[in-house]
From TrEMBL, chain A:
Keywords: Ribonucleoprotein, Ribosomal protein. Residues 180-249 form the Small ribosomal subunit protein mS35 mitochondrial conserved domain. One of its GO terms (cellular component) is mitochondrial small ribosomal subunit. Pfam families: MRP-S28 (PF10213). PANTHER family: MITOCHONDRIAL 28S RIBOSOMAL PROTEIN S28, SMALL RIBOSOMAL SUBUNIT PROTEIN MS35. GO terms for biological process: mitochondrial translation. GO terms for molecular function: structural constituent of ribosome. It comes from the Eukaryota. This is 28S ribosomal protein S35-like protein.
TrEMBL record, chain B:
Residues 649-659 have a biased composition (Low complexity). It comes from Dinothrombium tinctorium. The keyword GTP-binding does not apply. Keywords: Mitochondrion, Repeat, Ribonucleoprotein, Ribosomal protein, RNA-binding, rRNA-binding, Transit peptide, Translation regulation. GO terms for biological process: mitochondrial translation; regulation of translation. PROSITE patterns: PPR. This is Small ribosomal subunit protein mS39. The lineage of its organism: Eukaryota, Metazoa, Ecdysozoa, Arthropoda, Chelicerata.
TrEMBL record, chain C:
The lineage of its organism: Eukaryota, Metazoa, Ecdysozoa, Arthropoda, Chelicerata. It comes from the Eukaryota. PANTHER family: MITOCHONDRIAL 28S RIBOSOMAL PROTEIN S29, SMALL RIBOSOMAL SUBUNIT PROTEIN MS29. One of its GO terms (biological process) is apoptotic process. It is found in: Mitochondrion. One of its GO terms (molecular function) is structural constituent of ribosome. This is Small ribosomal subunit protein mS29. Coiled coil: none annotated. Belongs to the mitochondrion-specific ribosomal protein mS29 family. InterPro entries: Ribosomal_mS29 (IPR019368), Ribosomal_mS29_met (IPR008092). Keywords: Mitochondrion, Ribonucleoprotein, Ribosomal protein, Transit peptide. GO terms for cellular component: mitochondrial small ribosomal subunit.
């Protein structure tokens, strides 16, 4: 079918016959003027004839816009009502001059862009719904669902009798499904001190746990997300903890082979520092008695300062301490 | 709870009790699955700075065009309506595609399944239906499917439980054998231009409901009651009463709801108020015979009938008596009762005072909807308050009542909400100071309410009255945003207001110049564009603009207006500006030594036949020390012989005197 | 023991005699920018500072019958470790110590001008040019003392089939041989240090070993390539190995003063080893575990930035020498500003005053 005919098929039913003829005539004229060229499909020829009509979008763009609504917000408004839940950043609703991001231009650095049309601000999660007064209100609202905390159960008792902490999370979205894959991830936490361990086992457990143990808070944190269900993950995490615990108690044959780089702490007794010191005094004094020598306070002080240098972060005070102790040994020490 | 600590040999017992929540004997109630969410939601109050959540919260995508109550055609163009309806039509389109091509939507992540989002099967004659199908359809309120399923089952002689038949009858009677309204799509109803008070017969005679009733082998009291209620709901008064008589003969006892509908239908049986009331009394007596106690809807029905017969002189008395009866029986009135009472009483001029008592009675209460007419109360109360009583105190009390609890939901359409706010603002404009008015204005505009041109006019009048001109820039920017600038004579009002006097505050005056300039530019733009419907602006407006520019000492803009007039509208008598303004313009151009403008002014004056202008210049020539030659040249060039003649004998002529006096005053101002 | 020396006044400038400077630091000792400064001031002036006094104090308490004491100077870049070292070197020179001085070990291990396979032991690498310079430096610094003491070799050394150094030959001959036969210079230097150690143990001489930036010798890998294109270890570079041996305390009648430094070029190298980009300027970190093992127990001596008094003296000296000309710099406010801008760091003060 020729496209011209297709065009005729596309007309509206209500079009009058006069218009119909006009259009057909127009179409023929076009084709006769340019025989070689393929006819254009002209769906709305009236627009084409008038030609100078502005497109709708352009006219709409001239429509005056509202000013951003933060301009009309009173100073003492209830922010909780304006921003009740977590949502994407909306520049027109936030009465704060927020800036974020970085602009790289040829002319040099520019200040960070403002809040309007700023994708950086939209990407990051914001906590505008969690202002302290809002949290207070929420707490007050759900207080009626809570029972009072048992009086006898103090924090210390909690630590003592309920050392294991299981952290789970539930998600509530406005989406068709109530399932959320992230809900399976669980965390268990326990204080290392609440486990019954000797020196070797404690050290070994720390080595097994690696980054899962935080020396600052003394907490063991195990996150499990392997299994599809929350309860399975809790069981799995508990299993891991148990396995680590019993593994820590074992002493393998190769554990005796550890070198200085494997030491959890600096052992001066085994270190070359001790050897070199004894060597020094053997050369200095003919009747050198190693056992008596090691009992001396100066030696003990010295060993302590060397240990500190290795165990702690080196600084001027530690060096000064080291210097004093070395001085005593090198210049004043007699048998 | 007992915890064992320590080694095997020594036990330490520590005991404390952990309260068990659900089983506890505390007076905590059972917690439902959404109770916590509801509690959290209760912390959030209404945010007046935001538009309704169905709109996108973005200045570019929020509606800004008003709902115009005065002319319905413009109401149809409201962007509130357009945006909301287009969103809904999107949803409808999605529903259409789901129903037309269900096979394409095989992926459904929802868990658990949401039946509302699933494809609904349509039955036809060939389907084998069972009782379960029918039960499901009734549960889903799917009337067409119910009817098809029932017919299929009848045709195949499937036995149907009479209880099921009864519930089917209830369903079809409730929905008048038509498809139930989809509660997903409410916007269309919300944006109806005016909700009609449908009090006419819409019952489908001889349709499925009646067929089903007829086919029942044993018609019991419940079946009768159901059908009468259905007919009563859709005002098939005659048949309803006939069935009622049948029922009485069969000695079946009807329910209260049956009587409620019958009382409402009295309107169609009897014409005069007196006869209607007689019939109501008869029905009420029947009721007491059957040992039935009236409820709130019984009284609402009585009041409804009374509100329909306001011509009857006893109507108001009886309405008050009905209310007294309600009190006696300890029946809590709904908002509809008050609405009808107000309707009955406010038809008489002296009766509007009842509103005070009503408001006193219900102040501070939060209502739940009980009757379809409940939603009319606030709109009508504000109407009465504004148009009959004009009492701003009462207006505030009604508005406070609306703000209580969830009462602000008592509007059935956007139209009635707009009417309510229009009346409220009109009331405020008439009796409040501008500061108070603007406090309310800032709270509700533009998200809850966008003022119409008429209300804007009233606000401007208020500003004029209280001499608070500093609000004009804000109001004008709103007028522009809401595209009201050239609606009615709003632009003219604004210009009149700001041209009225010269303002001391330079900053304010500058803003006024900006306002006038933006209006002028809009006019120029609109009129230069052939494609847009042109604006017809009167000469007075141009002269006011010139006056504003001269007051703001912006001579260039003033001359620009003149230039535009000379160039574009030289021969349009409607746009001729006043001679007084031309004189001022001449003075200003002399002061600024703009001889071109002076010439243009005089030329223009000659064209529109304003001879005073030349006279004015000649009289004041000493002030500007113009040479005789100069004036001579001017007069020649402007070819105004008549003016010349006039000027030679001008000392005694009257127009010159009148032209002098305002000129002096303007000099003083300068 | 009693010291010979000029009267050192605290935080004042001490001018090194030109003859001594020529003798001691002709080939090495000062870096290029130091030389430029001295040229500009037309004298070699060193400020007498606390670390120097500390060293003198330790020196006076030293029992030379015990194994040698090691002193490690540390401090931020530009705080004057090299100046203190050289000042102390001059002091040792005056007190008739035999001086073994290494001012730029990084040239030995990172940027040797030539490298050659050792003929004496396969796997070792010789650096003839650097070794020659080291020999020459040793000869220059100890010329007077060597001729006076008349040290002789304790063993017979066979260099090749024909060339040998007999037992009992003067050490000067050994040095001269090394200087003449560049190929053998590295081995000569090693032998020389061995001989010195021997004679010091015998009690014939007192030796002062002085090394700058010695932490580069403990970095493990050098930048010198083996014949098979692998990088050679520090220990395989003959003269570095010999010098490192001198830092151990298995001998007596001597002392070892070294400085550790973290100038950026070495900092990178250290950083790569330890995984830190910018470590502290502290000796344990800079020496690495190996260096610490070698030197422990040592006496760390901190070379700090200027004190208030020292800063004033320094600026007075600069003004006296017309190095600082700007009138504003001579006012109280100007001094405060220089203090602030330089944060009392001697090198920064010098750099900042360059502009004034």
């Amino acid at each position: 079918m020729r496209p011209k005919n297709l065009f005729l098929c596309l007309r509206f039913q209500t079009i009058s016959s006069r218009l119909f003829f006009e259009k057909r005539f127009y179409g023929i004229q076009k084709s006769s003027a340019d025989e070689e060229e393929f006819d254009k499909l002209n769906i709305m020829p009236r627009m084409f004839v008038k030609g100078d009509r502005e497109p709708l979008a352009k006219r709409e763009a001239l429509r005056p816009q509202l000013t951003p609504r933060y301009n009309r917000m009173p100073v003492d408004q209830d922010w909780n009502s304006v921003w009740p839940t977590a949502k994407m950043f909306n520049p027109s609703a936030v009465p704060l001059p927020v800036h974020m991001g970085k602009l790289k231009t040829v002319s040099g650095p520019k200040p960070p862009p403002g809040k309007f049309a700023n994708p950086e601000l939209m990407k990051v999660p914001n906590f505008l719904h969690l202002a302290p007064p809002a949290i207070k209100k929420h707490c007050d609202a759900i207080r009626k669902f809570c029972t009072p905390w048992p009086q006898a159960l103090t924090d210390e008792m909690c630590d003592k009798y309920f050392p294991l902490e299981v952290i789970t999370s539930d998600y509530c979205h406005a989406s068709p499904t109530i399932r959320e894959p992230k809900a399976r991830i669980i965390t268990i936490r326990i204080k290392l001190s609440s486990l019954d361990l000797d020196y070797h086992a404690k050290d070994k457990l720390k080595r097994i746990l690696q980054h899962r143990y935080d020396p600052k808070t003394d907490l063991i944190t195990i996150v499990a997300d392997k299994c599809p269900l929350k309860s399975q993950n809790i069981d799995y995490a508990k299993y891991l903890l148990t396995a680590c615990f019993f593994e820590a108690w074992k002493t393998e044959s190769w554990e005796s082979e550890k070198e200085q780089s494997d030491w959890e702490t600096f052992f001066w007794e085994k270190s070359p520092s001790k050897a070199s010191l004894i060597n020094y005094f053997k050369k200095t004094f003919q009747n050198f008695n190693e056992e008596n020598f090691l009992e001396k306070d100066t030696v003990k002080d010295y060993s302590k300062s060397v240990k500190n240098l290795f165990d702690k972060e080196e600084n001027d005070e530690l060096l000064e301490d080291y210097r004093k102790n070395v001085e005593k040994l090198l210049f004043d020490e007699r048998l | 709870m007992i915890v064992n600590t320590g080694s095997v040999s020594t036990f330490t017992f520590v005991s404390f009790s952990i309260p068990k929540f659900i089983l506890s004997s505390f007076d905590y109630y059972y917690r439902g699955p959404t109770d916590i969410l509801k509690a959290l939601a209760s912390t959030v109050s209404r945010d007046f700075t935001a538009a309704h959540y169905k709109y996108m919260d973005d200045p570019f995508l929020l509606p800004s065009k008003s709902v115009d109550v005065v002319s319905f055609t413009l109401f149809a163009k409201s962007s509130f309506r357009a945006y909301a309806l287009s969103k809904e039509s999107g949803r409808k389109a999605a529903r259409y595609f789901l129903n037309t091509y269900p096979e394409l939507f095989f992926r459904d992540d929802a868990e658990p399944k949401v039946p509302a989002f699933c494809y609904r099967e349509l039955y036809d004659e060939n389907t084998d239906n069972t009782e379960d199908d029918l039960r499901d359809c009734i549960a889903n309120r799917d009337v067409p499917n119910c009817i098809i399923a029932y017919n299929n089952m009848e045709a195949k002689d499937v036995k149907i439980n009479p209880e099921l038949k009864q519930s089917l009858l209830e369903l079809v009677c409730f929905y008048n054998s038509k498809e139930a309204r989809d509660e997903e799509f409410l916007e269309e109803e919300w944006f109806q231009s005016k909700k009609e008070n449908i009090v006419r017969r819409t019952w489908q005679d001889g349709e499925f409901a009646e067929q089903l009733f007829d086919s029942l082998p044993k018609k019991d009291a419940r079946a009768y009651c159901t059908l009468i209620q259905g007919m009563g709901k859709y005002f098939q008064a005659g048949k309803a009463f006939k069935l009622y008589e049948e029922m009485k003969e069969l000695n079946y006892s009807p329910t209260v709801a049956v009587f409620n509908y019958l009382i409402e239908n009295v309107v169609f049986i009897q014409e005069s108020g007196e006869l209607r009331f007689e019939m109501i009394t008869k029905l009420l007596r029947d009721m007491s015979q059957y040992n039935l106690k009236p409820n709130v809807n019984t009284f609402n029905a009585i009041l409804f009938v009374l509100s329909r017969s306001t011509g009857w002189n006893k109507a108001s008395n009886i309405a008050l008596n009905t209310f007294a009866e309600m009190k006696l029986l300890n029946v809590q009135p709904s908002l509809a009762s008050y609405y009808y009472l107000l309707l009955v009483l406010s038809s008489k001029n002296n009766g509007s005072n009842i509103l005070y008592e009503i408001v006193r009675e219900i102040e501070g209460k939060s209502f739940a909807i009980k009757h379809p007419a409940d939603v009319n109360f606030f709109e009508y109360a504000m109407h009465v308050c504004c148009n009959f009583l004009s009492d701003v105190e009462l207006g505030y009390r009604i508005h406070n009542l609306l703000s209580t609890g969830q009462n602000h939901k008592f509007f059935s359409t956007a139209y009635s909400e707009a009417v309510y706010y229009r009346n409220f603002f009109s009331l405020l404009c008439l009796s409040e100071s501008t500061d108070t008015l603007m406090d309310v204005y800032n709270k509700y505009v533009p998200n809850i309410y966008i003022p119409e041109a008429k209300v804007m006019q009233q606000i401007l009048q208020n500003i004029e009255l209280y001499d608070t001109y500093h609000y004009i820039p804000q109001i004008f920017s709103d007028i522009t945003t809401f595209q009201l600038s050239f609606r009615g004579d709003l632009a003219d009002t604004v210009l009149t207001l700001i041209a009225k006097k010269k303002h001391q505050d330079e900053n304010l005056q500058k803003q006024f110049v900006a306002i006038a300039w933006s209006l002028f530019n809009t006019i120029v733009e609109r009129n230069s564009n052939v494609k847009i419907f042109p604006l017809h602006v009167k000469g007075e407006m141009y002269s006011k603009m010139i006056l504003i520019f001269l007051n703001g000492k912006d001579f260039e803009k003033a001359s620009a207006v003149l230039k535009y007039l000379v160039k574009e509208k030289p021969n349009d008598p409607a746009t001729f500006i006043e001679g007084q303004t031309l004189k001022l313009l001449c003075d200003a151009s002399l002061e600024n030594k703009m001889m071109n403008t002076l010439k243009q002014t005089i030329d223009y004056a000659s064209v529109i036949g304003c001879a005073d202008v030349i006279k004015h210049i000649i009289e004041n020539n000493e002030k500007y020390s113009l040479s005789e030659e100069f004036i001579e040249k001017f007069i020649q060039s402007s070819n105004l012989e008549a003016a010349k003649e006039d000027s030679s004998s001008s000392e005694s002529s009257e127009p010159s005197e009148t032209s002098e006096s305002p000129d002096e005053s303007s000099d003083e101002e300068k | 023991m009693k010291h010979v020396g000029v009267d050192h006044i605290d935080s004042q400038y001490f001018v090194l005699p030109k003859s001594a400077n020529d003798a001691l630091f002709k080939l090495s000792g000062w870096r290029q920018n130091h030389k430029q400064m001295f040229e500009m001031f037309e004298e070699t002036a060193i400020m007498v500072r606390k670390p120097f006094h500390d060293l003198l104090n330790y020196l006076s308490r030293t029992d030379f019958e015990r194994p040698v004491n090691r002193y490690v100077l540390y401090g931020e870049f530009g705080n004057g470790k090299t100046f203190t070292l050289n000042h102390f070197l001059y002091h040792c020179f005056l007190n008739r110590f035999l001086i073994v001085h290494c001012s730029s070990p990084y040239e030995w291990v990172f940027t040797p001008q030539e490298t050659a396979q050792s003929e004496w032991k396969s796997g070792r690498i010789d650096t003839p040019v650097e070794a020659t310079i080291a020999l020459k430096t040793f000869k220059d610094q100890n010329a007077a003392l060597l001729s006076e003491l008349d040290l002789r070799t304790s063993k017979k050394y066979t260099w090749s089939l024909r060339e040998t150094t007999e037992e009992g030959e003067p050490l000067l001959n050994l040095i001269d041989y090394g200087l003449n036969r560049m190929k053998k210079a590295s081995d000569c230097y090693a032998v020389l240090l061995k001989e010195i150690k021997h004679w010091a143990n015998e009690g014939k001489i007192k030796v002062s070993v002085i090394g700058d930036v010695v932490n580069v010798l403990y970095l493990g890998e050098s930048k010198v390539l083996n014949p098979d294109k692998t990088t050679a270890e520090m220990d395989n570079i003959t003269i570095a190995r010999a010098f490192t041996k001198m830092l151990r305390n298995d001998w007596k009648n001597g002392l070892v003063v070294v400085a550790v430094d973290s100038s950026d070029s070495f900092r990178d190298k250290v950083g790569r080893l330890t995984g830190e980009r910018f470590g502290p300027d502290l000796p344990k970190y800079l020496l690495t575990e190996k260096g610490f093992q070698d030197l422990d127990p040592f006496i760390p001596i901190k070379v700090d930035k200027y004190t208030e008094n020292e800063f004033e003296n320094c600026l007075d000296y600069y003004i006296r020498k017309n190095y600082v000309n700007h009138p504003a710099a001579k006012t109280e406010m100007g001094r405060k500003e220089i203090k602030f801008m330089s944060a009392y760091n001697p090198l920064e003060v010098y750099k900042f005053c360059w502009l004034l």
